[in-house]
Fold:
Amino acid sequence: MILRLVEFDIEGSPAENMHKFSEAAVISPVPDTAVFPELFTTGFVLDDILSLALSEEDLSNLPAASAAGENGIWIIGGTLAVRTDCGVVNRMVAYSPEGELVYWTDKVHLFKQMGEDSAFVPGKCGGTFPFMGTTGAGIVCYDLRFPELSRRLVLAGAEILFVPAQWPGGRLELFRSLLRARAAEAQIFTVGCNLGGEHLGVMFGGSGGVAHPGGKMIKGRNVMQGVTDFEIDLTDVREMRRHINCLEDRRPEEYGTLSWQGGYQ
Structure:
């Protein structure tokens, strides 16, 4: 399959950004799947998030959904600020080749150091979803630092993990290292799509990537500035596990229960 990362910057209104990313998703040659970054239409304009947030009903009728359905591809539509009864969540959405909203998951861990918790509430993990003959799942940006969440999804069957992000350029090496770690520890694909350019004085610069179940980053092909295609074979997950199967070798009876203080009970 051909998987595309669209890593533009944020420029203009939310509607303009939505159209810009959605159009790039289907530039010829049209991929099988396109992935967008975290909060790619608004960014972290925290004082305005409530007024910019979409309703849950809006999510099924966005241009990203139309682009997916009209071109017969998957679009992992990054994340969007979404109003719920509990508050505004940072929600990842996935559209099927029929243009239907088939999966969503919320950012579970908020990055308090930059005030994310002043505008958002922690969300719920959406579990897994059927994806191109295998099982997919999503986590959002800071969630990548919490292996317990990724492991939960892997144990539920996920073989490809999508990670829309706004990871600062100064920590891109760490971002890519964590993608590789999550991939290697369970023999899965991890797909990190990072915001491009600069936003609110912070340089992001794209440079996400796709980590192979063997733990290496896959080399991509540049389509245009900010758009990169990767060729992956989803059967590589099972092939890797024929040689080393970390999941089968787990001994959870020896892991204990993590306490709040960070020790073991």
